[in-house]
Amino acid sequence: MNATVVNIISSTDMLSNFLSGPLANISSNGFLGVGLFVILLALGLGLHKLNMMRTYRRVVSTSKGLEISEESLCEEMFSRQGSNFNAAAVSAWILLFIAFAYFYFLTPSLFLKYNYFQVPSLASSPIGFFLFGFLVLLLTGIASAFLPRVLYSYCQVSKREKMAIMLAIPLLVVSIIISVYLGTKYPAQEANLRAVAFFALFISQIALLWPVYLEALEGVR
Amino acid sequence: MRLCIVGIGGCGGHLAEHFLKNEDVTILKKSLGDHVSFGGVKGLWLEADVQETDNQDFFGSLERGEYPGYLIPHDVIKSDSKASRAVQDRYGYDIKKQGFMRQAEFLKAIFEIFDTDEVVKSATLSEYESTNPILRSAWDHIRPCTTLAGAENNNKASELCDGILFLISLGGGTGTGFVNPITGYIRRERSAYPAFVLAVLTEEGVDPQQRAKEAKRDMGAMISLYDLVTKKSGIGVDGVILVDNQIMIEKFGQDYPAIDQYIYQAMKPFVARHHYPGENLPSLALREKFLEGLPQPPILVPCYHRMKRHNDPEDELVKRAINEGQLFRCDPKMADRAYVFTRGFMKFDEIVNAVAKYTGLSRDRVEPWRKLGESRWDEVLILLRNPYGGKDKACEDKVTLEYRLHRTLRMALKYMDDPESNLIPEGMPDKTRDALKDYFYGKNGIRNEFKRSLTRIEKGEKPFFLNEKNIFEDKSERSFENNENHENLPDDEKIRKIVMEEVAKILGERA
After folding, report:
1. Beta strand B42-46 pairing with B3-8
2. In this complex, do B24 and A59 lie within 8 Å of one another by their Cβ atoms?
3. Residues 91-120, chain A: which have Cβ within 8 Å of B?
4. Sign of CA dihedral B129, B134, B135, B136
5. Contact A154, A79 (CB under 8 A)
6. What is the pLDDT of residues B110-160, one digit of tens each?
7. What predicted TM-score, i.e. pTM, was given to this entire model?
8. Could you give the number of structural domains in chain A?
9. Do A84 and B375 touch (CB under 8 A)?
10. Smallest Cβ distance to B277: which of A76, A79, A166?
11. What is the pLDDT of residue B487?
12. Percent of chain A with pLDDT over 90
């Protein structure tokens, strides 16, 4: 019994140390966090392109003398992942961008000059948070609808990966709720909660891009 | 190529479950969107036993519009049906019987009655607007999945199936009994619509589930296989892919889900999409390839292997598939064609060379189709066409197809000769008793045909099943045969010889 209590206490301490340690450092550094987000996204898109090129090269190298166009290969590679998954993936990408915007640009704590509070009419509106999110949705809507089709229609997405992408939705909702809560409390700060929101955002982004990374990794092996 | 998967009977249902599982995510097993299966396949499960359908939760009722669904075709017959009464009174068969315990001849007889008996036909027609409502009901549920349905019901033509793959076990139950009548029925509507069968021959010894003796199951298996491969091209199926459960048992023990999973995995290169550009083969073309130069549907033996991706995998993959991955033992050197389905990055010429090397076939008899594979894996499925015959006493060699089929045929004959078998049950009307007696033990009955087949196998002749056999002959055909004095007609061999001589003569004259 005592040993169990000690274990629980030490696990809680470890989590607390983790949240207030390296994770808090990254999550409280706006430029580092945004840079990481952009790099992960760009890496995903870049690797997707490389995966497609590698497949094309392999098909061409095993088709001696045959002319194969990239379009015809893309047509053959296209797979339907299912409408449940597509809906979940589009929702997850929309939420990812909204969670990202809420986390970095809702309060001046990370970017002093570029944030929601810099637009007084929006910040003073009773539905200001919602309008801010809606604006992000409009700005990133096309990308959110387009990215899942580009990233998942030409690679193998296992059911586990699909589930992970689907589970990113509640994780992103948690991140958004925490960001909104922190925005409401501002200027009061809560480093641990911020770290949790950052962690949820970061893990979700990895889950959304994982099929592409995995395909690239397996291609290299 | 996009296939409609039709599992028939218990084994067919279990196999179909693997092919038809949804690749989309679901919450609490409920899907709000379309069902997405591997290779874009669609399909259903035909079963005769209500209890079997209750003991599973994968298939829903097609009658209630659920997908993937099961159908009990004979449910279409009402309890107070006149047609049912006519069959019962005239032939002694209860067509509402639940399940068919290892009696391949039961369903065969019933469907032949619907086809041949004018009284039953007219009673059925007046009641159901079809002369064979059981098969009509099954076909009505398969048809919408196929390209034959066209743009009906707002179907997207590109998502419809251009061929059917029946999944059955040759254990003498529903699958064994149903496959021939249903394919015969489809053929009457569309003689060129591609239909293939994946048939699992049950293992040696007593079946642990239903405790059915091997000899009894083997008789059902042989009756069904005999029917499958003796129908002429365009009347029967277009190819019978044989799997021996004995090999699977040796590999996986009695772990039937693992066996089903392996068979599904082995068939993936066949049903997969994502072809190499320009190598997308329609089912119709595959049908032509399977039947090329054959008067009867071929037996196809699958050989499968998969391994981690590496450079130039063709030789090793093919070698292992042929030597270690046979799903029905055979001598690959006896095959007259090889159809190769690969997944992964492989060179066309290298595949042809490797298959030619390990089968002894000339390069023009090897037909590869390449598909893009899964990450990290390369796999190959080789379908060897009719890999038997040509060798005297090959049936004594354990690694030949002849050995297994010779044993199965002997067991079937043993069962027929066993007085306890009761193949002609007491209490049946004389008409049925005479027909069954004639079918089993008549001069040209199935017993003598099996004996002739045994001799042909022993001599290494090909094919070893020759003449189609019916329990209830069509009266119109019978009268025609009598008028023509059928007894005096030359046998098949003589006809073949005469035709060959005439063809040689014509070709000689032309030259």
Report:
1. parallel
2. no
3. none
4. positive
5. yes
6. 888 988 888 888 888 888 888 888 888 999 999 999 988 875 655 566 788
7. 0.87
8. 1
9. no
10. A76
11. 43
12. 50
